[in-house]
Amino acid sequence: MTDTTPSDHDFKRLLLASIPSLRAFALSLSGVPDRADDLLQETIMKAWAKQSSFEAGTNIKAWLFTILRNEFYSQMRKRGREIGDPDDIYTSQMAVQPNQHGAMDMEDFKKALAELSDDQREAIILVSASGFSYDEAAEICNCAVGTIKSRINRARARLQELLGIDGEGDFGPDAHTAAVIRPSAVS
User: Fold this and answer.
1) Is 73 in the same domain as 106?
2) Residue ranges of the RNA polymerase sigma factor 70 region 4 type domain (predicted)?
């Protein structure tokens, strides 16, 4: 062990603290909890095996997210021969429609997010959902900060277009639900 490599105990502590964020990122990439868990497990195993290449004092979260991202793309290349469902024909037949507006809105958002290009989806998830700075996201994606900013800007604009959002009035409950929640607001 060198001065720049953390002890096994320190590395384990840092790794365990990162698991919830890693799982959320894995789930957002794969879209399926089982695949996300497998992706997370592979990431942890690879990180543990390569812990000697991690330098103490650097951003372990960015290092782990990079491993996870690379593993995801490796798995996607391997699954290139699987039958695709780009129009969600098979998936929609298996899905149960949600009973509440929030759940339906989330489904709409997931579908819109899935329609973004891989680069845009990855950038917006890293910065908006995972809390990385533009600089950290650029490091994870191995690109310039300006590229990340551009991807996020285009992703936000595309999401607004796909979801039909024109302004703040498009957020929250519809008029009928609002009348039930706040009956005094409707005359």
Assistant:
1) no
2) 108-159
Domain holding 148: CATH number? 1.10.10.10
| pLDDT per residue of the chain (187 residues) written in tens, 0 to 9 | 445 666 778 888 988 999 999 999 999 988 889 999 999 999 999 999 998 888 878 888 999 999 999 999 888 887 766 666 777 776 666 644 445 666 777 888 889 889 999 999 999 999 988 889 999 999 999 999 999 999 999 999 998 898 888 766 555 555 555 554 444 444 4
On whether residue 57 sits in a domain, the answer given is yes
Quote the number of domains for the chain. 2
Residue 139: CB atoms within 10 A of its CB come to 18
Q: Quickly list DSSP for 78-93.
A: HGGGSPP-TT-HHHHH
Specify whether the CB–CB gap between 69 and 30 falls below 8 A: no
181 assigned to some structural domain: no
Range of the domain at 35: 1-80
pTM for the model stands at 0.49
113 and 164 assigned to the same domain: yes
